[in-house]
Amino acid sequence: MEKSFNFAHKSIFGKNYEITYHSSMKALDRFVLKHFFGPFTLSFVLVMFVLLMQFLWKWVDELVGKGLDWTVFVELMTYIGISLMPLALPLAMLLSTLMAMGNMGENNETLALKAAGVSLARIMSPLFFTVAIFTVGAFFLSNNVVPYINLKAFSLLYDVQQKRPELQIREGVFYNGIPNISLKIGAKDEKTNLLKRILIYNHKQANGNVDVTYADSGYMKITDDQRYLVVTLYNGNTYQDEQGSATPDAYEKKPFRHTYFGKQQIIVEINNYKFDRTNENLFKDSERMQNIDQLAKSRDSLDKQRQYKVSMYLSGFLHTGYFRKANEIDTTLKTKALEKLETFKFDSTYKSLDNRMKMQVVDNALSSAQSAQQYITSNSWDLQLNTEQINRMGVEMNKKFTLSLAALLFFFIGAPLGAIIRKGGFGMPIVVSVLFFIAYYIISITGEKFAREGVWSIFAGTWFSSFILLAIGIFLSYKSMNESQMFNTDAYVQFFKRIVRFKQRK
Hints:
Elements: E1 5-12, E2 15-21, H1 26-63, H2 70-106, H3 109-115, H4 120-162, E3 181-188, E4 195-202, E5 211-222, E6 228-241, H5 248-253, E7 256-269, H6 292-320, H7 336-340, H8 346-352, H9 355-421, H10 427-453, H11 458-481, H12 489-505
Antiparallel strand pairs: 1-2, 3-4, 4-5, 5-6, 6-7
């Protein structure tokens, strides 16, 4: 339905505004969305940049100094960027809605629209439908795209971790990056790459330091195909222990072999310098690499395995542990008197035994109890790991919903809060958004940790932060609809002034 408003020169806080709505209410939608998409684009890019910098800061030691091709780096950052989008969306949504409504409030545009008969709910309705579309898109991204991207990203990151760094040997420090060789240099000429006072321990025989080489100088170079390391040494000595091939008497006379050389070359195969791709199927069983359907199947499979293990452990415990059958009880308790009794009475039977047999019974009981305790302890760790894996699957399933829904819940916080605060720009919105998001993130990871460890149920642990956001959103929406002055400092100043005047009258 079309609805038109025409009014001019209405006084609002001493200012005159001329607002004309001569078309349909779609003009209002375009007006509000125009205020939203600019801050949203800027805030989303800013949040993505911060998250990517956080990733680089965490993995910088694994990425730097490995001679990676720039295409590998760009591919990895692309994968990581896509995987971080569902996490960046809620914070960007909170910041952008807060800025949009804050800018409109600061410029008195919201007040002018209300004066024209447009309610605050109607003003925020285009934002609501837009955010709802983003929420559905975020869920599709989290469930269908991110698992595939995570598989690509973490398999590539694993390959980067396995690639050995280029030779960056520091003076006076042993370098163990070359297979079967431990190397130390005294000095290095940065211009000519000449190495001086080279000490090499060859551990190829895996028999300790039995092969030692010391050279006055030398060079190191990796072949073009990065498969071999060529070490050229000048003016050195090689000492080789002879204890493996000599008799004790001969070893005392000649314990090692000494060889002098003017020039010597050592060629070492270093296949790990080559950047190889690992089979991605090795990582596909991780919970972060699966969508909801795959997680549900994996969780059911793990739950069946756990139930089978519990039954097997319980059966083994009952038959071989603490509760043993009567025919397996120590023969010292099988007296004729016991065989005649229908009910086993331990106290009276124990008192009828002599001291030697009492000690034997106690020792047997302690041994049986300790064996049962060790059986329980060893198997409980296996069951605990299995349970934690099942819980991680459940947490990941629920996170695909909660993380997507967080964008919509943050809208119900940002939009009403912006209407109440009426402050635009990046100053106040960034401070408020970061505080809200940090609180949400801390509560979220705490609940997820409790859910994984079994302290809370999976539903309670993963949805706890969402319920808190929902409560805050309902409260702020109610306050904004009723023109709350909760963030107006003048209202608090006037309130305290009235209290002071009231006390002065007394």
